Amino acid sequence: MKFSYKILLCTIMTMALAFGVSGYLFINYVFQNSMEREVGQAMNESSILQFAFETAALNIPSKYEVLQNGTIEQIGVKLESSGGEGRRLLRLSDENRVPLYASDGFVEATDFLEQIDAKTRIYRVIQRENRYYVQTGAVITSLDRAIYLETMKDVTEVFAERTGGFSVYRRMMIVVLLVSSLIMLLLAHLLTRPIRLLTRATRKMARGDYSYRAKQVSNDEMGQLTKDFNRMANVLEDTIRKLEEEVQAREEFIAAFSHELKTPLTAIIGYADLLRSRKLDEEKGFLSANYIYTEGKRLESMAFRLLDMTVTRHGEVDLQTIDVENLFCYLKELHEADHENDMCFRFDYQSGKVLGEADLLKTVLNNLVDNACKASEAGSEIEILGEKVEGGYRFVVRDHGVGIAPEERKKITQAFYMVDKSRSRSRNGAGLGLALCTEILKLHGSELEIESTVGEGSCIGFRLAEAIDE
Predict the structure, then answer these.
(1) Given a cut of 90, is residue 432 above it in pLDDT?
(2) Sequence-separated (6 or more) residues with CB below 8 Å from residue 212
(3) Which 8-state DSSP code applies to residue 412?
(4) The last residue of a domain, from among 139, 166, 193
(5) Is the N end or the C end of the chain the one with fewer CB atoms within 10 Å?
(6) What does the alpha-carbon distance between residue 165 and residue 19 come to, in Å, rounded to a whole number?
(7) What is the reported pLDDT for 364?
(8) Which parts of 82-207 fold into alpha helices (H)?
(9) Eight-class DSSP state of 213
(10) Pairing relation of β-strands 344-349 and 381-389?
């Protein structure tokens, strides 16, 4: 059953119960008041008849010392006929509770008569032939006789009014419930609209449409639920996109890794087979061994860098205060003595102190310089710069080489990605340098800042937090 129908059903049941109980109590309250009024009138009428009987008894001739039964009968006839248009029912009985006079239609049973005593007046409500009466009883003492007076007042109209009230109330309640049901059906439809929109959104997302969002139609709790659902959907979509990117990157990594392994292994196996299958002269043997050594070193370098990346991703660093001059002195000693690159290095930096791990930062700077050398022609100038910036210190390595196309800038930090594969492989590159730099800088709360123009060169840098002297 739909939630809106449940709301409608519960509302109808609650209203029906409330109307039923309240209507029953109200009509019975009116009925009880009417009955009390009728009983009061019946008791008053009984008192009047009692007084009238005593008056009539006093007016009989004085020759009778005792009230005669015939006289009682005559008085009963007069009392019955004195009721005017309304027919009065009464019964008079002697001391022995033997009826002396009874109106036509008066109840024949004498059980109520047996209950009458001289001290109290009593009454009861009886039903006879689909009619209702208030029967009263009292004792009249006149001329040394005790006469029992009973009256019956017709109150059928009161009961008929109660029955009619219940009938009218039932019809009215049915009409009210029908009208209320239509109104509640509309309200339930409106109130459950946010739920239907959320259900539609969950079904869309279950089918793979993660960009679908539920429409917010109110500002109440349901509106807040819709807003939270959309916020959750945004996080879910971002998470799924990141997972898809990670899966794609992993597949590309495996493909690139397999390809990078295949190239040096093919060369190693080929030259090794050449050495073992035939006798070569000294020069060819040296060249073959040199190829094997060169490709082996390349594999070794690639393995070490992969290991460094793995350790860096799952490791933590203890940030310490580092004098930037030590980092630049290390780079000077390392690259100015390197005659293989045949590059012109220019160092320009400001003094300062940063927070970091010295060995890891040396690795980052050394990789940036190596990449600059690989992207530049022999004899080109490589600039290694350092400057204080607001809230930290900025390191920059600038070259004047081939540059990087805009569409490739986001890819160069991926493992095994190389802008110019032939140039990188010729210089023992494997495309892991910038990927390793990215992981190290993440541990320092930083990232690479890349600026490049194709044919003019690249400027790659990063920022570190400045150490505060205590």
Answers:
(1) no
(2) 201, 204, 205, 233
(3) T
(4) 166
(5) C
(6) 14
(7) 85
(8) 156-191, 193-206
(9) -
(10) parallel
